[in-house]
Structure formats: C-alpha cells, structure tokens
C-alpha cells in the first residue's frame, strides 16, 4: 500500500491546500505527470474526507496522499474576545454577524484517523504537529507512509522520534499556513535553501522541499540542497484542476506583495497583502482555530463579492510565476526545466 518517494517517476508532490484549492482532479493530474497528488482534509469532516478519497480513487490508480491538521490546545478566550471587538466595525460594514461563542474544534481528528485506519490510504501527512505514538504506530501497521511537516530542525527531531517516514521541510517562502507545531511559535525566517541542510544535519529521513518553488531553477536548487522531492502549491493554484476562486486566481497576478499574518486564522500564514491584513494583522492573537471561526463570516462575505481588499488570498513568494493550463502539463514542464 505505502509508496516510496524514490519510486515516483517525478519527485514532485502536489501540496495539500485546505479550503478548496486542492481537489481530487488536481491530485489525479499530478499523478498523471508522474508525481504524487494530495488531498487536503483540513476543515473537512471525516465523511467529507472519505468522499474525496473515493473520488480520487476513481480518477487515478496511482498512490496519493491525504493531509491532516493536528489539533491544538484552546486559545486565550480573552484575547479572542478582544479581537472580536476590534472586528465589529468590519462586520457592520459587511452586514454579517460575528460568532459570539466558538465551540471547541479538533477538526474531526479522531474520526479521520479512525477512517484512515479502517480504509487505509498510501500516504498521510501532518500539518501543525504530529500524531501520538500509538496513532502513528497504527497507521504504520496499516501500511501507510507518514510525512511530518516541519519548519525547524527541532521539529524535524520530534517528527523522526514520532516515527515519520519522511519530512516535508517548509520554508518561510511557502504560501498559506506556516506549519509550526505550536500555534504561538514565531515562524522561522531561515530561507528554504538554508533550512534544508540545517534539517539534514539532524536527520537521515528523506526530505521534501516546500516553499517558493515556482520554476525549474528553484526546483533544481532545492534538490541540490538535499531534498529528495519538491512540493508545489501556489504554482498549481491557477491550473485547470485547481479549486481556487476566480478572484484568487486573478489576484496572484495583480497583487505584488506577500506577507505573513495571523489576521485571518490566528496562525501565521503567508498571503497576498491587502488592507484587511494591514488593519488587523498586528492585533490578531495566536489562537487557532478560534480566529479562523471568528473571521469566517467576514471572509465569506468578501469572497462572495470578490473583494481582494478583504479576502484571504494565500500565496507563496513565487506567486507571480503561477500560470494557467492543465496541471499535468505544468508539472511536466517544471520538471523538464529543472533538469535542463
């Protein structure tokens, strides 16, 4: 059941992008190119995850992966309440109501693990932390290859100790959430090409490079720096199979700057800079998923109107290189460019 990174025809992985950008069609397209496609189970219920797994199995007979968000302890309720008060004028402007109570949310973690044990998939990766020893051992016994996402050598040590088979090394250039294992941690700023050898110094596990890889030379440089494979996320956002909205796709070419912010979810995430980030980023508390739920009505209203001034537009530093067309062709072309 499990796959080895060395067995991939192309050592290219489609990043799991939660919130709708990753689709079964996108995972299958990456597979057709010879890489490893991924589904993003974050924000989904266990049954919804199972539906996507069933869909990708109909589209490809090659190995694929499923990414899980590891739940965190509850955030500071007082800090979340203060941020709610700060956002009330935004809510009034958008004519939406902010949630006054936010129920505990573990992202259906236990049910997802149970589903993946009952019906194993080839690969599972983790973001925001690691599974417990018994959970990792159970998935290993089921034949699933497990990948821990890390942002520092310290997290890499913890992932190896937890029994991970490979590590996704996420540099600060990556779009979307930084995968820090603790919500309140300040994300590291060591560039990917320096982070890879720093992680290699503490582990012998295969490394997957992630962050700012938008063209062939960047991919080649990551492989030279010690990666066994590369992970593409923002580079795939404008492809035919991506689930990104039309506004998000357009913004990748219109907005010039990215920044790391907690404004939308309480976790640091890199996105296209806009006025909402400028107004609220400095005040957002390190509380996830509470801030994610708090801002959900605002983000939904902005998305409905396609208003780039207030949408969360996750993007890596190479967002300007993202191009349209079939994902299979994009992956093939990038790999060819990396080999030239």
Describe the structure using short key phrases.
340 residues, 39% helix, 11 strands, single chain, 12 helices, three-stranded antiparallel beta sheet, alpha/beta, eight-stranded parallel beta sheet, 14% strand
Q: What class would the helix/strand composition place it in?
A: alpha/beta
Number of DSSP E strands: 11
What kind of sheet is the major sheet?
Answer: 8 strands, parallel
- The average pLDDT is 97
Strands of the widest sheet, in order across it, are: 1-9-8-6-5-4-3-2
Gyration radius (Cα, Å) is 19 Å
Instruction: Identify low-pLDDT runs.
Output: none
Tell me the overall shape.
globular
End-to-end CA span: 33 Å
Protein name: Probable nitronate monooxygenase
InterPro entries: Aldolase_TIM, NMO
Keywords: Detoxification, Flavoprotein, FMN, Monooxygenase, Nucleotide-binding, Oxidoreductase
Organism: Streptomyces sp. Y1
Brief synopsis:
The chain is of the alpha/beta class. Helix content is 39%, strand content 14%. Helix 2 packs parallel to helix 4 (109-118) and helix 3 (77-94) packs parallel to helix 11.
